[in-house]
Specification:
236 residues; alpha+beta; two-stranded antiparallel ribbon; 9 strands; disordered C terminus; TIGR02117 family protein
Length: 236
């Protein structure tokens, strides 16, 4: 093999090995740090606000009451922004993520390498996805959490600060995009990347509200790990 080709082959081998090494390190960190718990689970109480942590198998949403004495979310995200405009919905879910993933990749089969590359390496924009619900159903992909009024105030602030706002202080609805009849998209702050994913945002939301969460996780499983067999474990 000519020396030039040998150099190219050696360089490719080093590059390939480096990529594999980074991926292995990332996976080990994701598993290890996801297993480290922070915060405590809330207790049921007369003044507790019932909220939910909901996953679709990949992406985690934080679901809260549409209205209570502390917050009316329809002042921020309107029923009318969704195709159904169904004002009977009692809960609203919030999920943050990469705008390209959200708008251009309705299914994994439609994922483009360029979209994934931009998302992973700080090159894309972000969006908030809101979904109205009647009543979330607890199960393996949906857990109930209890927030004190003070904790809910902290969660409200975290979610509100995740939206991007126009010059008039209004959220910026991304029109013409939804997955179904009860959801809508809005412009958001921050940039999605390998180390701050949609699930990292949901995990940070739980931390902001003083709830049980992972130290750091890029995956939904890292959050739900801390809510397995919750009925058998102490709340504190």
């Amino acid at each position: 093999m000519p020396s030039t080709l040998r150099k190219i082959a050696k360089g490719a081998a080093y590059a390939g090995g480096s990529i594999v090494g980074v991926l292995v390190l990332y996976g080990v960190a994701a598993v290890g740090l996801s297993a480290v718990p922070v915060g405590k689970r809330g207790h049921s109480a007369p003044d507790a606000i019932e909220a939910y942590v909901l996953s679709n198998g990949v992406h985690t949403d934080i679901v809260v009451p549409v209205r209570n004495a502390q917050m009316d979310w329809t002042r921020l995200v309107r029923y009318a922004d969704t195709p159904a405009a169904d004002s009977s919905m009692r809960y609203v879910g919030f999920g943050w993520g990469d705008k390209g993933f959200y708008l251009d990749t309705p299914t994994w089969a439609e994922l483009k390498p360029s979209t994934a590359f931009k998302a992973m390496f700080w090159l894309g924009e972000s969006a908030m996805h809101t979904t109205f619900h009647h009543q979330p159903v607890e199960g393996s992909d949906c857990v109930k959490i209890y927030l004190s009024p003070a904790q809910y105030s902290q969660l409200i602030e975290f979610i509100r600060n995740s939206f991007d706002y126009d010059a008039q202080g209004r959220v910026e609805h991304i029109q013409g995009h939804s997955y179904g009849q009860h959801d809508a998209f809005y412009e958001a702050k921050r940039t999605y990347n390998l180390f701050y994913t949609c699930n990292s945002w949901a995990n940070e939301a739980l931390k902001a509200a003083g709830q049980r969460a992972a130290f750091w996780t890029p995956f939904d499983a890292g959050i739900f790990w801390h809510y397995r067999d919750r009925e058998k474990q102490p709340a504190g």
